[in-house]
Every structure is written in structure tokens, then in C-alpha cells.
Design a protein that fits this description.
There is one protein chain. This protein has a domain at 7-115 and 164-191. Helices cover 17% and strands 25% of the residues. The chain contains 3 helices and 12 strands, in the order ββαβββββαβββββα. A 5-stranded mixed beta sheet has the order 3-6-7-8-9. Strands 11-10-12 form a 3-stranded antiparallel beta sheet, with no helix packed on it. It binds zinc ion.
């Protein structure tokens, strides 16, 4: 397993480059995000602190590498919040995966549902014009409207045009620190031709 490299993006230091990349991808999608805002009590009084909260969508997101270690934590959180996909007022939990290359069009975003029975997609809302996560197995509604409207807006009769599954949206990597020129500079600073004569 590759050791995670702490990466700073927009003033926040993330535990791994993958987390920073997802923050950058949130920005690409125009999503507000909070990094590890607080822990939540799940089973057996254990506290779990997901990597991200997306406040406008009320979505918790856990970034996972290709491995499945501690994959049970997001599942437990979703179960603690709600097991019912039609409970549109409950927070949603999404697992975020490393990017994969798409069909000849560069890197693509990949995500998964936290519990069996969910079908997490990203939809483009025709009312507010924003992309957001949605559980296709539950209420077809824009999660951004929830805080403003007493009832969910059910609008998709044929969502195929504005519905994105994993691998169908771009993935934006956070800028990496440029180490090459810096090392070259160190080399010339250390190199003293006169000292060698
Ligand atoms: Zn909307």
C-alpha cells in the first residue's frame, strides 16, 4: 500500500493527495465543502469523523483509496442517520474513490453508495442549475432545495440527460508542489566551484 502524502490545498492540509484532489473536484463542481468538521456518534458509542461535509447538499463524504479498510465506518454512519432511501430529509453518506481514466477523455470521478440498496448518482437540477448527489433508489429530488422548501421537488421523469453515474464526470487533481526546480536551486547553492580548487 502506498503511504499517504499530506497535501495542502486552499489553505487546508489533507491527509492524502486523494483528499486534496476531491476538494479540488468539489470546487470544479461548484460545491461548498467542509473538511472534517466534526465527529458523529455511531454504533457502540464510537465516534466517527468523515473526511468531508457538503453543507448545501447535506452529504457526508468519506475518501477511500483502492483498498477497503475500515469501509464499515461510512456504512455505520448511514445506518445511524437513516437506512430509508426515501427519507429525503436525512443526511446522505457517499464513499469517494480514486479517479480512473474514462473513455479516452482523461480522469473521471468515481464514487459508491455506503449501504446496500442505495444507488448514488449525480444529477443536474433544472431548477437551481447545480450538480448534486442523489439516491436514485429513493426520492428523485434536488438535495439543495431541502433547506428552502418544505417538500422535495420531484421533477425527473426522464433524468437520463442530466444524470451522471461514476466515471461520467471529470476529476480535478489539486496542484502538486513543484520540487524539481527547487532541488536544482539547492544544487547550485551548494555547489561552490572555488571551494573545489
Ligand atoms: Zn436544485
Amino acid at each position: 500500500m502506498i503511504k499517504p502524502i499530506p497535501t495542502t490545498y486552499r489553505g487546508t492540509t489533507f491527509a492524502s493527495t486523494l483528499e486534496a484532489d476531491w476538494a479540488c473536484t468539489f470546487d470544479l463542481l461548484g460545491w461548498e465543502w467542509e473538511h472534517e468538521p466534526h465527529g458523529i456518534l455511531v454504533e457502540d458509542n464510537t465516534r466517527y469523523r468523515p473526511d468531508f461535509y457538503l453543507p448545501t447538499q447535506r452529504v457526508w463524504a468519506e475518501v477511500k483509496g483502492p483498498h477497503n479498510q475500515r469501509i464499515d465506518k461510512p456504512s455505520k454512519l448511514q445506518a445511524a442517520l437513516s437506512r430509508d432511501s426515501f427519507d429525503w430529509n436525512a443526511d446522505l453518506v457517499v464513499i469517494l474513490r480514486p479517479s480512473r481514466s474514462g473513455k479516452g477523455e482523461g480522469e473521471r470521478s468515481w464514487w459508491e453508495n455506503a449501504i446496500n440498496g442505495q444507488d448514488i448518482v449525480i444529477v443536474l437540477c433544472p431548477e437551481c442549475g447545480h450538480h448534486g448527489f442523489m439516491d436514485l433508489a429513493g426520492t428523485w429530488s434536488c438535495r439543495r432545495h431541502m433547506r428552502e422548501q418544505p417538500e422535495p421537488n420531484k421533477f425527473w421523469t426522464d433524468p437520463n440527460g442530466d444524470l451522471f453515474r461514476p466515471g461520467e464526470l471529470p476529476f480535478q487533481r489539486a496542484p502538486r508542489p513543484r520540487r524539481g526546480p527547487q532541488r536544482l536551486g539547492d544544487f547550485f547553492n551548494d555547489f561552490d566551484p572555488k571551494g573545489r580548487q
